[in-house]
Design a protein that fits this description.
Elements (H helix, E strand, L loop, with lengths): L4 H34 L5 H21 L4 H20 L1
Helix pairs in contact: 1-2, 2-3
Length: 89
C-alpha cells in the first residue's frame, strides 16, 4: 500500500471507480440477455424497447469512458445479428 496520503486516497478512488464500472458493465450484459430472450417472442414492441435500452446503456458507457466506442459498436452489432438469427430459426 502507498505511504503518501494522496496516493492512499487515489487507491480508494480507483477502487470506487472500478466497482462503478463493473456494475455498469454488468447492467449492459443483463440488458443484452433480456433482449436476446425477447428475440424469440412475438412481442416486437418489447424487443424494440429492449434493444433501445442496450443502445442507450452502451452509448452512455462510451460517454463516461467505461467502454471504448468500438467495443460499444461491436456489442450493438452482435446483438442485432444474434436477434436476427434467433428470429430466423
Amino acid at each position: 500500500m502507498a505511504n503518501i496520503k494522496s496516493a492512499k486516497k487515489r487507491v480508494l478512488i480507483a477502487e470506487a471507480n472500478r466497482q462503478r464500472n463493473v456494475a455498469f458493465k454488468t447492467s449492459i450484459k443483463t440488458a443484452v440477455k433480456k433482449a436476446l430472450a425477447l428475440a424469440t417472442d412475438s412481442d416486437k414492441e418489447a424487443l424494440n424497447t429492449a434493444i433501445s435500452k442496450v443502445y442507450q446503456l452502451c452509448d452512455k458507457a462510451v460517454s463516461k469512458g467505461i467502454l471504448h466506442k468500438n467495443t460499444a459498436a461491436r456489442k450493438k452489432s452482435r446483438l442485432v445479428l444474434a436477434i436476427k438469427r434467433a428470429q430466423q430459426a
